[in-house]
Amino acid sequence: xxxxxxxxxxxxxxxxxxxxxxxxxxxxxxxxxxxxxxxxxxxxxxxxxxxxxxxxxxxxxxxxxxxxxxxxxxxxxxxxxxxxxxxxxxxxxxxxxxxxxxxxxxxxxxxxxxxxxxxxxxxxxxxxxxxxxxxxxxxxxxxxxxxxxxxxxxxxxxxxxxxxxxxxxxxxxxxxxxxxxxxxxxxxxxxxxxxxxxxxxxxxxxxxxxxxxxxxxxxxxxxxxxxxxxxxxxxxxxxxxxxxxxxxxxxxxxxxxxxxxxxxxxxxxxxxxxxxxxxxxxxxxxxxxxxxxxxxxxxxxxxxxxxxxxxxxxxxxxxxxxxxxxxxxxxxxxxxxxxxxxxxxxxxxxxxxxxxxxxxxxxxxxxxxxxxxxxxxxxxxxxxxxxxxxxxxxxxxxxxxxxxxxxxxxxxxxxxxxxxxxxxxxx
Amino acid sequence: xxxxxxxxxxxxxxxxxxxxxxxxxxxxxxxxxxxxxxxxxxxxxxxxxxxxxxxxxxxxxxxxxxxxxxxxxxxxxxxxxxxxxxxxxxxxxxxxxxxxxxxxxxxxxxxxxxxxxxxxxxxxxxxxxxxxxxxxxxxxxxxxxxxxxxxxxxxxxxxxxxxxxxxxxxxxxxxxxxxxxxxxxxxxxxxxxxxxxxxxxxxxxxxxxxxxxxxxxxxxxxxxxxxxxxxxxxxxxxxxxxxxxxxxxxxxxxxxxxxxxxxxxxxxxxxxxxxxxxxxxxxxxxxxxxxxxxxxxxxxxxxxxxxxxxxxxxxxxxxxxxxxxxxxxxxxxxxxxxxxxxxxxxxxxxxxxxxxxxxxxxxxxxxxxxxxxxxxxxxxxxxxxxxxxxxxxxxxxxxxxxxxxxxxxxxxxxxxxxxxxxxxxxxxxxxxxxxxxxxxxxxxxxxxxxxxxxxxxxxxxxxxxxxxxxxxxxxxxxxxx
Lengths: 427, 481
Description:
The complex is a heterodimer. By secondary structure, chain A is of the alpha/beta class. In chain A, 27% of the residues lie in helices and 22% in strands. Chain A has helices at 10-18, 124-129, 176-181, 186-205, 207-211, 222-232, 245-258, 274-279, 305-311, 332-341, 346-351, 355-360, 407-414; strands at 26-34, 40-49, 52-58, 67-70, 75-78, 80-85, 133-138, 147-156, 162-173, 238-242, 262-266, 284-286, 316-318, 378-381, 392-397, 400-401. Chain A is globular. In chain B, strand 1 (63-71) and strand 2 (77-86) form a beta hairpin. Chain B starts with 13 loop residues before the first helix and ends in a 23-residue tail after the last strand.
């Protein structure tokens, strides 16, 4: 696992000068602390130091010299983790020059890596962060092939706390979208996928043939085949966009046959085959508002998908998909609430935006819960965090207090008082 | 959503058209009558209201919802309310009043009651699920002026989305053409009832709207085809050319009408033009102008254009920059139909802020929460809640009841239906929702939805959760949520 700071030079330096607080511990006292791992603590204290949680418990005393924040009973949660976003890859969807989410190039598919396209200066990052989202997956969109490429894991902190871990997952589509990309039939999708997998192994065994231009024809380029190897080795999750119940069953079978680490995304008819998914121990990332029979592959879409999958024992992570995927990754906590409205237990909903995604993305030991030793992504809320309109009063990422100012709050303040003279003297 | 727009409506049913005759130099009723005498049988067959509403309230019984907290839609809140419905109308609402003898009593303890929600901007039926070219009917993107098309002719009454909106408490909606065109066509107001026909859903007596669109969408759609408009200046040239033609058309009819009134046997009616029928009716005020516009500066230019041609803009749709000109919109009494938190999907939506709706309200303007989405329409109440919370965070003093007005009486006003729906007041249509808890909470859901007093949706009774023909045989057993 490689972590690198996207902005090495001036920006990180400037911000590290501005953040000298790491020396003193911070104690949040008198909170209603949702640990996610160990229940809810009334009158809870959360203490962190040098970016790491040092203590979480009921009524703990703040250490000497600590910066103390009295939560006055407010809800305290781990930082939220959004498992499917375009953060950093897309400023304005219809302004193509700002869009780095997909490649329509025939040269690459699986080898497409979103990471170099990530823009740490995107206005969407603070806009998302101020709603309590501290980590996010930046996922590629589907271009011209069934393999969309590889997503990255972002830490959304300011300055040096903004990091990008590239190549955390491979994306594949197999249903109505997938078949369109490979000649119009599901049968072709599976033939293509199997050929690609076989070719990747062939490539692995015969790299020198590729070097010497002696290799047989393959379904994908050499770079794409290389990119598929960690997937075939079960090291990189294969995130599969799929909805129809029978397609999901086919993916489950594929995962078993190749021993892949599969994650389902979308899965609108997942509830119909929840037992199969649970048995294969495959997690599902879903949008809890997705209940329209918008495609023939999703006639079974229902608001109760999350609740039914959870009841069957499937690990569920929640994300904001559809039209709002590009700009409302911030709505994550509210989407958790919507799942609760439709039957998901509240603790499962909170886990679906914290602990479960942390586990899916291989950082369950680092974030996703409020436990001693974890990185200090901590949010204090002005309401029940899952409630419509709830917002944080404090956001910490790796122990650093984050500004709650965004481009939107600045625009708001510019027009807050229309009667007052504007800064430019006219209106 | 963003590619969709609003349409205009022009006439409606016979009752309304009759009223228009006395108010306007020429109405469609007069046209038909005249055509009968002067232009032969073919024209005389054109009625004033050619696709009239056949909606009839379903059977209902005397019903009293007792003990709930009522948000009346006017901004007021009544604790321990008794809401009485009979004959399809609201009979009374009072705190602690007894239920009338013989009424079916609904225990409202711990629950909330609101008027049926109204979505002023929807494409249900014209942009249905499944999303297929075979049923898509939102944008007639073949010409920047398609004022001649009527959204109701695209509406698929079997769109499964209607039932999902009903489960969210939506009882009426304006269905609009999309925003590809400068003049997109007529909208239609529907009641959210199952029917074999669109006519069976049409809100009786509602005025039509004319959907118009500002900004990027017409520029993009036609600019990419190397046609006009490719710029904002051409957008305005296009609108103005349309209005000029409509004024000429109106003038010809006025002249003809005057001759006919004088008994001139040689008077010949102008050639009928479907596009100009709609535009002229919008200029007369018989059709409400519903204008898709994101940017503040464009809204200001549209208002000058309305002055230039003597018409009124009823409502700006989307209006993500309404907060920048909220004082002007308030002064001119123009509604803004807005999202709680959609923004940033195109350049002209980049300046959207969460406080837009609350700031409009605070300025005294007519603030409307709209969906423009088959997903969003299922939880307009929570969009209102989000906007309310954003407003309160910057210190605006807005009550829960006032936030409910954004999804009830204000959208009713924006459709000129506020004398008939949108509030729990005696004499109004009994479109009523009983909520399991405060509708401003994510944990609440609509339990019972009444339309004209008839129980049309019941969360706990699958027999009261209608399923469209389309879903029948695919998804029979599951609920429609």
